[in-house]
């Protein structure tokens, strides 16, 4: 039960349906208060019209243009799978403008990032990623807001991506911006396809993301991650503080190893859900593992690993399988700094 203020200024009380992966502990309540927003959402189902609730007339899925119009002009969020009967369409196949005033809604919770995305979309064209089509058309503020990088950083990253073929439907810059925004917000691919426009489906969006991910992994990652360099290169990143605290010689390499937990949604795949559920954290997680030098220079990022694997097991696996890392780990000349909690 939640209390909220309606657009007319009246205080109302109603039930808010939460996503299935939320539980009411303190951490999730904090997340709901500071990261989520209440939005009027159309009551939709597969078997009835979301406007008049009629089940007898033929139903059609709502078009993307109607979904965007509902939010930008009426602040109503219509789900992509909503269906509407023929009685509410005009001669061009779009929902009539007067019908948006009578859509039944209820308050639902959505992530702020997705809502901000639609707010940014309002004063611009329907496809915001068209502005990333050419380097000259990229605006500094837009680039920072969507990708988290400045225009100069974005173009510098784009220079490394050389194996990605470009065509008339999408350019290299559009896919990089799309991928960075996806990583930044965690938006699901169906909503991302809706924002991208051009009649892009979820399957096509998944293919786009795979293309740019493989290109970044092939062209960019090997230049900055991995232990392929010689041992002397990493010795330069030993800090004066660690050498003084542990009274180390100059030829002793100091490395810091630690894993972290990233929250994911519950999966319908039982075997995957079993591997990603953490009994300690009581949530579905996966674990990336970082090995870096004493001053913070990242040597490599490993994983993802199952949530029920502790850091000791992961580190032993990495040392056994990474041949490049073995070459720089000399006996009695290497010091690993680890936290105690996950190694007991």
Any descriptors?
344 residues, alpha+beta, 3 domains, six-stranded mixed sheet, three-stranded mixed sheet, 13 strands, 37% helix, disordered N terminus
Task: Describe the fold and architecture.
The chain is α+β, with helices and mostly antiparallel strands and 344 residues long. 37% of the residues lie in helices and 19% in strands. The protein has 3 domains: 2-117, no CATH class; 124-221, no CATH class; 231-337, no CATH class. The chain has 14 helices and 13 strands. The strands form 4 sheets. Strands 8, 9, 10, 11, 12 and 13 form a 6-stranded mixed sheet that branches. A 3-stranded mixed sheet has the order 5-3-7. Helix 6 (172-185) crosses helix 8 (202-219) and helix 7 packs across helix 8 (202-219). The longest helix has 18 residues, at 202-219. The chain is elongated, with a radius of gyration of 25 Å.
Give the DSSP E fraction (strand runs of 2 or more residues).
15-25%
Number of domains: 3
- Please give the number of β-strands: 13
- In DSSP terms (H or I, runs of 4 or more residues), the helix count works out at 14
Describe the global form: elongated
Question: Uncertain segments of ≥5 residues (pLDDT<50)?
Answer: 1-35
Class by SSE composition: alpha+beta
Helix content: 25-40%
- End-to-end Cα distance, whole Å, is 42 Å
What is the residue-averaged pLDDT? Answer: 79
Order of helices and strands: EEHEEHEEEHHHHHHHHHEEHEEEHHE
Q: What does the radius of gyration come to?
A: 25 Å
Give a short account of the largest sheet.
6 strands, mixed
Task: Describe this structure in a few short sentences.
This protein has 344 residues and is an alpha+beta fold.
